[in-house]
Structures are given as C-alpha cells and as structure tokens.
Amino acid sequence: MTVQPSLETRDLTIRFGGHVAVNAVSCAFHPGELTVIVGPNGAGKTTYFNLISGQLAASQGQVIKSGTDLTRMSPSARAQRGIGRAFQLTNLFPQLSVLENIRLAVQARSGDGWRILRQVAGLTDLAEQAEHYLEAAKLSGVAHLPAAALPHGDQRKLEVALLMAMEPDIYMFDEPTAGMSLDHAPDVLDLIAGIKKDTSKTVLLVEHKMDVVRSLADRIIVLHNGELLADGAPDTVMSSDIVRDVYLGKSAVPA
Ligand SMILES: Nc1ncnc2c1ncn2[C@@H]1O[C@H](COP(=O)(O)OP(=O)(O)OP(=O)(O)O)[C@@H](O)[C@H]1O
C-alpha cells in the first residue's frame, strides 16, 4: 500500500529575475520521518522552506499537504492547515512572559478548532497544557521573565515550545541550534527528538552541523544550486561522491 505523503512539493520553482533559487524540486515527505535538508551556502534551503510555509510565492510548481494544494494560500492559511514553522520571537509578544506567550499559542490553536492530533491527550485545561510545554522545553525556571529578556539559548527553546503548542503536523526548523552555546543545544535537540518519536508528525530540518544531522536524520536531501541533488538514507547520501564533491566545493553536478 502506498502511503499518501503528508507534504509534497511538485516541480517547485522560484526565480528572482534571471536567478533560479529553487529549481523544479519534486519531493515527498511522510509522517514519522525526519528529513534533514543540507547543501552549501546559497543552495536554496531557506528559500525552499519559504516556498513551503508561504513566505515566498512559487513561480512554478505546487506545494501539497495531505492531498490539499496550498500553493496559492497565505502563510497563515498554511499554518492553520498544520504547516508549523518556528516563530521569530520578534513577531510575538516580547514584553509578555514566557508562560503567557505559550498560553497564547495554546489558545490560538484551541480557539481555531485547529486540532490536528492532540499531542497532550487528557490535558483539557489550557493552563495545564501551557505548563506541559514549558516543562518540556525546560523553561520553568524562566516562566515569568519577559520573552525579550531571555538569553539567546532560551529564546530558541521558547520558539520550539511555541511551535509545539500550536500542534502542527509538519514541523519546519531552520538551523534550530544556530548561535546556541553547547549547554543549550542538547535541550533543543532533545525537543526535536521527542517530536520525531510521534509517528504522526513530519519533521523538516535545515542544518549545517554534521553531528546534528547524524543524530536526528532518518533521511537526507541535498540541495545544490536550487536543485535536488541527492535524496536517501543518511549513510548513503553522505558517502556519495557527488555530495562529497559539493561539500569540498568542486563542481560535481552531473551533466
Ligand atoms: N528575496 C530574494 N531575492 C533575490 N535573491 C534571493 C532572495 N532570497 C534568496 N535569494 C537567493 O537565492 C539563493 C538561495 O538562497 P537561500 O538563502 O535559500 O540559500 P541557503 O541554502 O538557505 O543558504 P545558507 O545556508 O547560506 O542559509 C541565493 O543565491 C540567494 O541570494
């Protein structure tokens, strides 16, 4: 039996003037799978994310979620359909406390009737749910601090906690441990590993750090010059000559 992909891009393309930043990328993602997207600087990884979450409009091609075409939908319409991309804290409520921010995220989801699959079965009270995410992100000690006052590492953890509170079924992380100290990075990686255990979720992760890639990836796709260069099991992809050549900076894209 063929399982329907939870997310699919078909021939997805965007051009900026004459430059094709994402070039006809067709790829399907499935629940219970964490895919890491790798590639050299400027390969198109963040642009691919922007096309999926709706921050950029495709020049060509489609974004399909569980059979629904999202390509012409706004970012918020996609979010309501379960596409979850980590928030930028600057877009939230920096003067409100960590706990209040999480409560708002829980409320936003509940108020919309936006219930994909309840991650916290049995917790009916919104405050209890907020506490749950606060503890999961190991932020209880700073629950009452304004979000803006958090050190960078805690802000990144809060981003993940807020995303979890929205209970999307597609999680998208763009370098989630960027700029974090070695003390904090494991907390964020543990959170992502926890999400990955839920087989109803699909996780996409853009990452440069190879130790992170190795610890989390079920599958790796490689973008290069906007094109899908490789796709497969981590060991196979990372040991392929093409991928090695790309990382060594040689021109190795097959003709
Ligand atoms: N809004 C834009 N206008 C013009 N060009 C853009 C725009 N956004 C991205 N690009 C170009 O598209 C290409 C892909 O950029 P993108 O940021 O997606 O790469 P990346 O793989 O995420 O790189 P990095 O690893 O450095 O973050 C780059 O050449 C970039 O300059």
TrEMBL record:
Q: Which UniProt keywords apply?
A: ATP-binding, Nucleotide-binding, Transport
Q: Which SMART domains match?
A: AAA
Among InterPro entries, the record links this protein to: AAA+_ATPase (IPR003593), ABC_AA/LPS_Transport (IPR051120), ABC_transporter-like_ATP-bd (IPR003439), P-loop_NTPase (IPR027417)
Cellular component annotations (GO), alphabetically ordered: plasma membrane
What PROSITE patterns does this protein map onto? ABC_TRANSPORTER_2
Q: Which domain of life is it from?
A: Bacteria
**Start and end residues of each ABC transporter domain:** 7-250
GO MF terms held by the record: ATP binding; ATP hydrolysis activity
- Gene3D superfamilies reported in the protein's UniProt record: P-loop containing nucleotide triphosphate hydrolases (3.40.50.300)
- Keyword check for Transcription regulation, yes or no: no
Does the record carry Translocase as a key word?
Answer: no
Protein known as: Branched-chain amino acid ABC transporter substrate-binding protein
